[in-house]
Amino acid sequence: MKILIALVLIFYMSVNVRSQFTPTGFPNNVLSSSSPWNTPIGSTPTVEPLSSQMMLKVKNAMISESYNPNLYLHYFQWTAPLHNINTANPVNRITVIQSQGEGFHETVDPLNTKKITNLPVDFSFKPDPMNDGHMIVFDTNLKVFHEFSRFKWINSTHANATRYDTFAYNVDGTYPAFVSGTRWWMKGVRGSGAPFIAGLIRWDEIQRGELNHALAVGSLVNRMKSSTSSSWSYELCSPVSSRTDGWVVGADTIMEGQRIQLDPNYDISAFPPKSKLVLQALKTYGGYVVDNSGTFGIYFQNMNTDGVATNSPWYTQLGADLTSLYDVPIDAFRVLSCSNVSTK
Ligand SMILES: *[C@@H]1O[C@H](CO)[C@@H](O)[C@H](O)[C@H]1NC(C)=O
Ligand SMILES: *[C@@H]1O[C@H](CO)[C@@H](O)[C@H](O)[C@H]1NC(C)=O
Ligand SMILES: *[C@@H]1O[C@H](CO)[C@@H](O)[C@H](O)[C@H]1NC(C)=O
Fold first, then answer.
1. What residue ranges do the domains of the chain occupy?
2. Does the keyword Signal apply (predicted)?
3. Which residue among 99, 104, 158 has the greatest number of ligand 1 atoms within 8 angstroms of its CB, and so is best to mutate?
4. Given a cut of 60, is residue 66 above it in pLDDT?
5. How far lies 142's CA from each of 30, 168, 170, 200, in Å?
6. Residue of the CA atom closest to atom 6 of ligand 3
7. Whole-prediction pTM value?
């Protein structure tokens, strides 16, 4: 009996180890299993009392920008590419310079040098083509992420960036609200301070047919605070958000870090397989609003970076399927209650 248990354990562990990383050394599941990004909503969530008003405000903002009041997809611009580098081999090392004259966050630039040195980044790696220039580099040797905002090459050993963060692949992906220190607004590369890899839909997982995490959501009318008379300046939903770039005042606005969910009763049975996978994730895990955006949308790994929609494999290989996601109405989403509002 003991031998049998031992064998079962060894079998279980070897299966587990084998399935933890893709053949390229990238983790199948990013962030810890206890991360809010990897935790299902469950069958009886508390819905935010102002949910309908909040979603209506998003819908009206989309209409006033002349968009359909439906879900949008960021896949060839305004998202982030994902590059692997293996530091077990000699690799290109770069210095990243803070191009707005501020120090990076204390957690990555404790001496306020406004520079980060010795980062493993190949000169062939390109950021997202739009202004935010997001880029994610994964070190398959040390299993750590490096994330950048507004990344711009200067030469092969130097680049500009406005934000930089680094973390292990299996952390929970959250930071305390207004991360202590003098530069809390420098934490993380998204407006909410959340990691960019959190909630990003990756090519490898869609290929495998597995999407077992919450999705990152960008929206147009994120909350700064609920009322002009509040004595604080910012409100956010901790711990998914640690800072906020929301600029709208009103209790009927969604906070950064707040969770939304595709209504469990919304019928997805007629959607094609890859779209259904995405929509099921939006029901089971929902999405966290983590950034300002020109649309109400979700984020796919940028596979091309040349800024041309029709060059993206999401379009050329999966477009016939994924295009149906643009039919999902904003009305089909609801906002869940935030149990931990943080203010500053
Ligand atoms: C890098 O940032 C500096 C300071 O803002 C700026 O003068 C320079 O033009 C930037 N270089 C590139 C390649 O963007
Ligand atoms: C690359 O750019 C940095 C920052 O501007 C500069 O200090 C360095 O001398 C440059 N290196 C080369 C080889 O041009
Ligand atoms: C609530 O937010 C505070 C501030 O970020 C954080 O320290 C605490 O861990 C959060 N609590 C929960 C239960 O998420």
1. 36-343
2. yes
3. 99
4. yes
5. 14, 8, 12, 21
6. 176
7. 0.94
